[in-house]
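Hello,

Our lab assistant flagged a job as stuck in the queue for most of the afternoon. It eventually completed. Since we weren't sure the result was trustworthy after the delay, we are filing this so someone can double-check. Below is the sequence as submitted and the structure that was eventually returned. Let us know if re-running is recommended.
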Amino acid sequence: MQRLRDMWTREGPGIPKDAPKRTGVALFAEILAREWWEMVKLNILFILASLFVVTLPAALAAMARVSVAFVEDRNTYLLREFTEAFLRYFWRATAWGLTLTGALAICTYAIVTYAAGARGNLLLSAPLTIGLAAAAFVAVFACHLIVLMVMRDLPALRLLRLAALASVIRPFPALAALAFASVLWLTHILFYPVSVFMPATFNFSLGMFAVAFGVHRAAVLVLDLPEATQPRRKPHAQDASYDN
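-- returned structure --
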């Protein structure tokens, strides 16, 4: 029982204090290599928490909260932090989830409608392009909004403004993160049934980690947080002291 409890509650591994600082893809790979087992467990928690479908937005918010902790290299107690975030953001995440789902549904409907009409009328390619751009912006906006929501408690209007601002000043990292998540699912589809266990093991958590990693810098910029909240490295697990 003790080993089973420790699997869900103990701290993740650290890295040596004198290790060179990495950025970009190298930092992404470093965090992934260090936290991969935590991400597998996070993936399981997300699946269990979203079984009732209506809990999906809250489960996404809880997964985003833990993913931000991975990006910022903070000590995480997975089960406790996921549960606390799930309960804390349940109603807000549900409201934002319904709103953003509706916006994406409208964009998708417009894209399908104008794409069908553009085959016989080239003039409809203009609204089709607008629909595609709107859908991309809503997706990028959703990424920034969920990360900003779990990083700081903000009034709804300010959260909207900051998410929109972050989406304008740094859209490409979010688009890259969404593309990475899409590749995960495309790989699952192309190599099915060999890849049947991908969603159960890491697709959800790795995709959310990619989103959190991609939009974190923009979130920090618009929140004007101090340098202490930037992604940082913690000492090795054998070291007695950790950053908090």
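-- support follow-up --
The delay was a queue issue, not a problem with the job. The result is valid. Residues 235-244 have pLDDT under 50 and may be disordered. The chain has one domain: 23-229.
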